[in-house]
Design goal:
By secondary structure, this protein is α/β, with parallel strands linked by helices. It has a single domain, classed as Alpha/Beta hydrolase fold, catalytic domain (Rossmann fold, 3-Layer(aba) Sandwich). The chain has 10 helices and 8 strands. The chain has an 8-stranded mixed β-sheet, sandwiched between helices. Helix 2 crosses helix 3 and helix 5 packs antiparallel against helix 6. The longest helix is centred in the middle third of the chain and has 16 residues. The protein is globular and about 50 Å long. It starts with a strand and ends with a helix. One of its GO terms (molecular function) is hydrolase activity.
C-alpha cells in the first residue's frame, strides 16, 4: 500500500499496469474506490495511478483550510514522486475541478484531460444559486454523514437493480472524516478557472451524464471555450457515471486515450 509525503502530509495512492500513465482523481467525499470498475480495464493498456487527495480515503486529513489549488499540488507532488513527466488525467466531479486547476497552471504535465460530470467554476451568481449553496452547506453541517450517504445513495442509484451501488455509497460515506469533508466542500464553493479555459490546449474529453446535477448545456457552453475539447453524453446516467454506466464509460475513455496516444 504505497504512500508518499507532501507538505508534511502522508498521501495514499495505488498503481498497476504498464504503458502510458493515466492518473485518476476522485470526487468529494470519495477515494480511489471511485474507479473500481475502470482500473481492471485501463491497466490492460496503461500504467494506472489513483490518488487519495488530502482529507480523503487513506491519506492524512490535516486540520487546515483546503483548496482546489492545494489538491492540484498534491497531484503534482505525486507525479514528481513517481518521476512522471506527462500523464493522461481523468477527474470526476471535484476531481474534474482539480484537473481544470492543474491544466491551467501546469499544462506541460498533461498528455490529455478527461473531465467527468464537473465544471470549471462553482460561483453562485443568482439569488437562487446562493440559496442552493446555503442549503447544501446547512445540510452538510447539520446532518450526519450516514444520513447524507443514505440520501446520496438513493439519489445517485434510484433503480431497484442498483441496490448494490446504493449500499456501497451508504456504507462508504460515513467513513469520511466530517471535518475534512466540510473543509473540502468549502474549498469547492467560490473556486473557478472559467476565465482561463482557453489555456487548456491539450486534447480534452468532457463526459456528461444526461441526468447529472448540472445540465448538459452547461458542459456544451464551457467546452466551446477550450480549443481542443469535445463533449460526449452518456445516457441513462447520473452523477456517478463510472459506477452506473461502467461499460459505456470505459469504452468512451479508452477510445479517447487510444486516439491521443496513436493519432
Amino acid at each position: 500500500m504505497p504512500f508518499f509525503d507532501h507538505a508534511g502530509h502522508r498521501l495514499h495512492y495505488e498503481e498497476s499496469g504498464f504503458g502510458t500513465p493515466v492518473l485518476l482523481v476522485h470526487g468529494l467525499g470519495s477515494s480511489t474506490r471511485d474507479w473500481e470498475y475502470q482500473v481492471p480495464e485501463l491497466e490492460k493498456r496503461h500504467r494506472v495511478i489513483a490518488l487519495d487527495v488530502r482529507g480523503h480515503g487513506q491519506s492524512d486529513k490535516p486540520r487546515q483550510r483546503y483548496s482546489i489549488g492545494a489538491f492540484a499540488e498534491d497531484v503534482i507532488a505525486l507525479l514528481d514522486h513517481l518521476s512522471l513527466g506527462r500523464v493522461h488525467l481523468v477527474g470526476i466531479s471535484m476531481g474534474g475541478m482539480i484537473g481544470f486547476e492543474l491544466a491551467t497552471r501546469w499544462p506541460e504535465r498533461l498528455n490529455s484531460l478527461t473531465i467527468v460530470n464537473s465544471a470549471p467554476e462553482v460561483k453562485p451568481r443568482s439569488f437562487r444559486e446562493y440559496l442552493e449553496v446555503a442549503r447544501r452547506l446547512f445540510l452538510a453541517h447539520v446532518l450526519g454523514l450516514d444520513t447524507v450517504g443514505k440520501a446520496l445513495g438513493k439519489m445517485l442509484f434510484p433503480k431497484p437493480e442498483q441496490s448494490d451501488l446504493r449500499r456501497k455509497i451508504q456504507q462508504r460515506w460515513p467513513q469520511n472524516d466530517k471535518r475534512a469533508y466540510l473543509s473540502s466542500l468549502h474549498a469547492i464553493i467560490g473556486w473557478g478557472v472559467q476565465e482561463r479555459l482557453a489555456r487548456i490546449t491539450c486534447p480534452t474529453l468532457v463526459i456528461s451524464a444526461d441526468r447529472d446535477y448540472t445540465p448538459v448545456s452547461l458542459k456544451q457552453a464551457y467546452v466551446g471555450h477550450m480549443p481542443n475539447a469535445r463533449l460526449v453524453v452518456i445516457e441513462d446516467s447520473r452523477h456517478a457515471t463510472p459506477l452506473d454506466q461502467p461499460e459505456r464509460f470505459n469504452t468512451t475513455l479508452l477510445d479517447f486515450l487510444d486516439q491521443v496516444d496513436h493519432p
